[in-house]
Amino acid sequence: MGMVIIKTPAQIEGIRKSSKLAAQTLKHLEQFVKAGVTTAFINQKAEEFMRSHGAIPATLNYKGYPAATCISVNDVVCHGVPNQTVLRDGDIVNVDVTTILNGFYGDTCTMYKVGQVSEEAQNLMDVTKECLYLGIMECRPGNFVGNIGWAIGNYARKMGYGVVYQFCGHGVGVKFHEDPEVSHDADRNSGPKMKPGMTFTIEPMINEGKARVKIDKGDKWTVRTIDGKLSAQYEHTLLITDTGVEVLTDINGEYKIT
User: Fold this and answer.
1) Which listed CATH number (3.30.457.10, 3.60.15.10, 3.90.230.10, 1.10.10.350) goes with 9-247?
2) Which of 11, 67, 139, 258 could tie 244 with a disulfide, CB 3.0–4.6 Å?
3) pLDDT tens digit sequence for 138-147
4) 54's torsion region: left (phi>0), alpha (psi -120 to 50) or beta?
5) In sequence order, which residues have a C-beta less than 8 Å from that of residue 21 and are 6 or more positions away?
């Protein structure tokens, strides 16, 4: 366990603004995610929006990553590299955006449906969104970080899904990836305790089939389910407050601030 950065009020304000912009980027993309467009086109629209609002995309050139977003379609779990893949009716698409605004990071992702999707796909997305909600419900000062993963893992498995354990949430705000690691499948009362001023992501990746994943040998980034079954993911950046949690990337008022 490394050093968790407790943010100052000024840093929190910066992270809040960047988080809001990241969320607005995802909202802006809703109009473009449809059958017939390429993932490269969506990536381009995201980068234009971020830059036009004074931000730069955190993923671009991060450890050699070639794009401004990660776009993961169907059996791609995360880190899908935008390319000439054309979206088709029935696809489920995850877009993951991290903005750097005035040096501060905001990180969020959501799922989009292309036309009509199968009942299986809809159920998977619903359960994954509920997993994120259950994780957020564990966020308050004094609770263990591990209880986030404990709540998520238990629920996802109960619903018959696999919980990706090879990738996790993370501290974020003044750097792209900070401590603590936020596992989405953890033992009860494990890990560090949450403290006011901590900012981190919860980003459960839930698979229709097996939990294990593999990385494409071609681009060395794209992560897929081991069995070719669907995967879904939702992500928010959170701030632990004196009394509970503030969901910094929630611009739709889905989560009440406690």
Assistant:
1) 3.90.230.10
2) 258
3) 999 999 999 9
4) left
5) 50, 53, 55, 99, 101, 106
